[in-house]
Every structure is written in C-alpha cells, then in structure tokens.
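seq as requested:
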Amino acid sequence: MYWTTFDSPLGTMWLTGDGTALTGLYMERPAALDQPGWVEDDAPFAAARDQLAAYFTGERQDFDLPLSPVGTPFQQQVWAALRAIPYGETRSYREIAEQLGRPTASRAVGAANGRNPISVIVPCHRVVGSSGVLTGYAWGLERKRALLDLETAEV
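struct tokens:
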C-alpha cells in the first residue's frame, strides 16, 4: 500500500492507494500509515495530484481516476450516487435515499456519507440537510463551505 501528501488550499491531504487505484483521500493523517506495509511514494499518485491541483484552481470540475474505496454494498451505492452529483450542485440526504429507492434511509445515507474514504474526489461535501443548511462534514464545516464556495465561484 502506498501513500503521499498533497498541499491544498484546505491544508495537507493524505492520499492512499494500492498502486493501481486510489483508496483514500484524508485531511488528517490516517493512523493506518503507521502500520507495516505502507510505503511513502509520490509516483502512484501523479494523476491524482495533477487533477486535484487543477480542481483547486477551478480548471477541473470532475475527476477521472481509478478508485477503490472499501465499504459495504450500501456504502458503495451511496458513494456512487455522490459521484453523480454535478459540480456546483448539492443534494440532500433524503434526495440520495430516494434516488437509491430507500426513501426512509436518510440517516443511513448520512452515515455512509460520513464514512466516505475518498473525500473531495467522491464529493461528500455536496450533501446538505433537507433545508439546504450545511450539516456534518468529517473534515469540518469550514472546509465543506470552502469546497462548495470553490465550486460555485464565478469564473
């Protein structure tokens, strides 16, 4: 397993991968990196670093990277739904639950959203409360607001 860091406008990000696909993007250093078998190496992350840099400068609106997040089948469904939210738009937890055919699963969607291991690229920041208010974000509401502001900035 490989890892590297990326300096973003939101602070240092840690990227993890298996050499073929990205498995994580974190805004705090994952404890797993202290375990045997992890190797710090920039090379497997060249495309991810380039695409993140372009995203943060407003030159890129989506990502074209192989992803391999680890999660339950339901979490995988939620994360796929997150990737379908267009740049600059938001959806509510309820809307995602309805999209998945589980209209009463808003809280489960919220829990899966909170366990998204590939933040920014799998845009969990685009999910808001039903009233449009910003709600929980694992990396803090200030970062969530900054990401949404980036995506809605006038070019």
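The chain has two domains: 2-56, 73-152.
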